[in-house]
Design a protein that fits this description.
Blueprint lengths: L1 E3 L4 E5 L6 E6 L5 E6 L7 E6 L3 E6 L4 E7 L6 E7 L5 E6 L2 E6 L4 E6 L7 E7 L2 E9 L3 E6 L6 H4 E6 L4 E7 L5 E6 L4 E5 L4 E5 L2 H6 L9 E8 L4 E7 L5 E7 L5 E2 L4 E3 L7 E6 L13 E7 L4 E5 L26 E5 L1
Parallel strand pairs: 24-28
Antiparallel strand pairs: 1-2, 2-3, 4-5, 5-6, 6-7, 8-9, 9-10, 10-11, 12-13, 13-14, 14-15, 16-17, 17-18, 18-19, 20-21, 21-22, 22-23, 22-24, 25-26, 26-27, 27-28
Length: 337
């Protein structure tokens, strides 16, 4: 498990025991995204930064083994691997989208006319690996086909207009045809990217705030989708560090329901990232009842136990971090280490 810090370093931990392994240092500005490359090379970690680089790390030695440079010293906010041959690395760099062939480290394309402000997200679409979605501060999401020689005249498939600066996006659904989008003003929208239909929650924060008895939801951190349950949750937080998983209904009567999980007592400030154990390659079987991990501006990395967690070494659990907030009816509550 990798964690990016405000010191521009990445620290590596065990997601099961919390053991600290080491850190990767080299970036000279804010790290904007980190991701492991995949099951075939589980020790390879990538990070992109406002220093204009994407760096490749070997987490066995914590050394940089490769890097990609924007060439213009523009900030890189997001990156994604994909393409029909799985050989492309795409990055949002300023208002541009850059493409490299990661096998040769050569830049193969630069799209600079589709967005007029910073590109905050790029994602190759799961199960549609030649399709790339980009999202920007300009409020637009663009979908490109990256087959062949990539250019905007021939490869821009569609444009979705969210209307306000886009923070995070993600794909879900049986064939990943659905898309969730969180904006910088805390609105949520659900799209079918194939037919451009939209369900919008402009009042998402107030709807979520009604879904528990705690303080108002101040911000959204992420969304989480369970393929087994076919359920999407939006994860909202308070400035004091409590998180809630709020179910989103986007078919028929649209609604954001009461919190189905509350993570309280672990953080004392804004939470920036959530890593569910179910999203890790190892699954929850090795997690010994671990619900997931969260990281925040308070410098804390919190591990959360599921309600049905088996008895574990109690010395791992700090009594100072156990949730003491008022219990919400029909709410699962999780305790951090």
């Amino acid at each position: 498990m990798a964690v990016s810090l405000s010191t521009n370093a990445v620290k590596v931990y065990s997601p099961v025991t919390g053991q600290y392994y080491g850190e990767c240092k080299g970036h000279s500005a804010t790290i904007n995204q980190i991701a492991f490359s995949g099951p075939s090379t589980p020790h390879v970690l990538h990070s992109c930064s406002s220093d204009g680089t994407i760096r490749v790390w070997d987490t066995r030695t914590f050394q940089q083994v490769s890097s990609f440079h924007s060439g213009s010293s523009q900030e890189i906010f997001s990156f994604s691997f994909g393409g029909s041959g799985n050989n492309l690395l795409a990055a949002g760099c300023g208002a541009q989208i850059l493409f490299w062939d990661w096998r040769s480290n050569k830049q193969v394309a630069c799209l600079e006319d589709s967005h007029v402000e910073d590109v905050t997200q790029v994602h190759f679409i799961p199960d549609h690996q030649s399709k790339l979605l980009s999202a920007s501060v300009d409020g637009l999401m663009c979908i490109f086909d990256t087959e062949g020689d990539i250019n905007e005249d021939d490869h821009l498939d569609s444009v979705l207009n969210v209307g306000t600066s886009i923070g995070r996006v993600g794909f879900f659904g049986e064939t990943y045809e659905k898309l969730w989008c969180l904006t910088h003003i805390e609105t949520l929208s659900i799209w079918d990217w194939k037919d451009a239909s939209e369900t919008s929650f402009q009042d998402a924060r107030s709807l979520a705030s009604k879904g528990w008895t705690l303080d108002d939801v101040d911000y959204f951190v992420d969304c989480h989708y369970s393929r087994e349950a076919e359920q999407l949750w939006v994860i909202g937080g308070t400035n004091s560090g409590t998180l809630g998983y709020f179910p989103v209904s986007y078919k028929g009567n649209k609604a954001i329901g009461s919190a189905e999980a509350v993570l309280g007592g672990g953080h004392t400030g804004i939470v920036r990232t959530v890593l569910p154990m179910s999203s890790m390659p190892s699954g929850s079987s090795q997690g010994h009842g671990i619900f997931g991990w969260t990281g925040g501006e308070d410098g804390r990395l919190c591990c959360w136990l599921s309600d049905n967690a088996p008895e574990i070494n109690r010395s791992w659990i700090s009594s100072a971090l156990v949730a003491r907030s008022p219990r919400t009816r029909n709410t699962k509550r999780h305790q951090p280490y």
